[in-house]
Design goal:
This protein is about 60% helix and about 0% strand. It is an all-alpha fold. It is elongated.
Length: about 350
């Protein structure tokens, strides 16, 4: 009902405004924002009684306060002991505002316990700062459902300054030309990208784009940024050297049908070897050792698997990739920083 009201209010607002010709996507986004705000408001009202009870005992982190906030005795013990271990015995001087922020987001006590177990550093964060970071994730497009999923999976993201998160998102979008929707999916499925070295992220993208001939949409489906650069190169090069993968030519054509990036990266090692590489584990292990030796001897470059081409070929690539297959501006390769 809340979501329906949110949609209706936004539609009425737009009809009364001179900008009624806004795109439907903007309408839906505003509706989701309002619906989410209404849900949070509803949750706040529902939990007002328990928080008022907690305030009577003080806002400090204590077993009594945690019980009043809806935690079971076991859960309260876990949270209190975890906070004491991180903050010391003087933890009673720290308030419960971070927990309140998580409760207001709609996370239950069980989920919050797991979040603190995964990221004890969250005990040291102030509730107001955590709330600001949650709001920033919302502004980046993580709507209801996605934002809870991200925080439950990778709670460390709430310890990272919003400025750094925004810088990483902006870098990936501008350097790799992902759309806003694609970037939201990357942030939802691979939130750890906000902490990785940005030049390494670009290098991984360049490798998939130029060496493997994979476009942005397929990278997102394959969850490219969840895989290490070493594993990406190893799986690709092993297939290439065995004749089961070809880099597309200037027209995007190959003499064989390449397996999808998603299948290459998501398959277990056994499935990867049996279905794609047609090889044994021993052969793959030997190949890994050869790759490691090549990296060491050639200063972390691979003779057959390096994305850096000679100067003349690079110039041709820059021309060929100016426009993508869908007519949008294509990616322009830059030299990787040493």
């Amino acid at each position: 009902m809340i979501r329906t009201c949110g949609h209706q209010v936004v539609r009425w607002s737009l009809r009364l405004s001179p900008g009624f010709a806004l795109k439907s996507a903007l309408v839906e986004q505003n509706a989701r924002q309002l619906a989410y705000a209404c849900r949070m408001c509803s949750h706040t009202q529902e939990s007002q009684t328990s928080r008022a009870s907690a305030q009577r005992h003080g806002s400090e982190l204590s077993l009594r306060t945690l019980l009043d906030m809806g935690f079971t005795e076991t859960q309260a013990d876990q949270v209190y002991e975890g906070a004491t271990k991180i903050l010391g015995r003087k933890s009673v001087t720290h308030d419960t505002s971070t927990i309140t922020a998580l409760l207001a987001l709609g996370l239950n006590a069980s989920s919050i316990v797991k979040i603190f177990d995964k990221c004890p550093a969250l005990y040291t964060e102030k509730g107001a700062v955590v709330q600001q970071r949650i709001q920033n994730l919302w502004k980046l497009g993580l709507v209801e459902g996605s934002i809870q999923r991200v925080i439950s999976y990778y709670p460390h993201i709430l310890t990272i300054p919003a400025k750094r998160v925004n810088a990483a998102v902006q870098f990936i979008r501008t350097k790799c030309l992902f759309t806003a929707q694609q970037m939201r999916e990357i942030l939802r499925d691979s939130p750890e990208v906000v902490e990785e070295d940005l030049n390494e992220l670009e290098h991984k993208f360049q490798y998939a784009y130029f060496r493997m001939g994979v476009k942005q949409a397929e990278m997102v489906k394959a969850k490219l940024f969840k895989v290490s650069m070493e594993e990406l190169r190893c799986r690709h090069c092993f297939l290439e050297r065995r004749g089961f993968y070809q880099t597309p030519d200037k027209k995007g054509q190959t003499l064989i049908i390449n397996p999808k990036l998603k299948d290459i990266l998501s398959a277990t090692e056994d499935i990867y070897l049996s279905q794609f590489a047609k090889a044994t584990k021993e052969e793959l292990d030997v190949f890994r050792k050869l790759v490691a030796r090549e990296d060491e001897e050639k200063g972390n470059t691979l003779e057959h698997c390096d994305i850096e081409e000679d100067e003349e070929e690079a110039e041709e690539d820059l021309t060929d990739f100016k426009r993508g297959s869908m007519g949008q501006l294509g990616y322009v390769k830059t030299k990787r920083k040493k």
